[in-house]
Amino acid sequence: MNTADVYQKYASFIFKYLLTLTNNEQAAEELTQETFYQAIKSIDNFHDSGKAKFSTWLCSIAKNVWLQELHREKKRHQLAESLSDEKKLAYNLEEEYFRNEDKIQFFKLAHQLSEKKREILYLRLLGDLSFKEIGSIFGESENWARVTFYRAKQQMRKGDKGDES
Per the database record, which ranges form the RNA polymerase sigma factor 70 region 4 type domain (predicted)? Predict the structure, then answer.
């Protein structure tokens, strides 16, 4: 059976399956095309398995294509949301000014810490590393990193210039 025969035989079946998933004719049509494109690309996988019916194999491809589209749509939605959020924030100059002032104050206080405490603070807050990872960087324990980080925060809250390690 050649590619055109396969498409003629199964396209309606796959379209109906995708229509039940999407509840949208246009999306079902596009996903049907993508399903057959993916099937042609991976036809050797079907021949190698020899277990599933061809229609079942096509349905599994269709479902994966649909799930990938849902994932892409979710990502597009998140991107659009984040861009609109950024636009809202950019227009509030007063809020932006105070946020920058907080950053400046944070870095001024952090600069007063010992080099070790400052580095731990940066690794944790800016590098998003775990206490275990920080401890291994310094050749110390996870608990040591946690305690040192806590002491650095306390010192910053007090505005101390103490340089204890």
Answer: 111-156
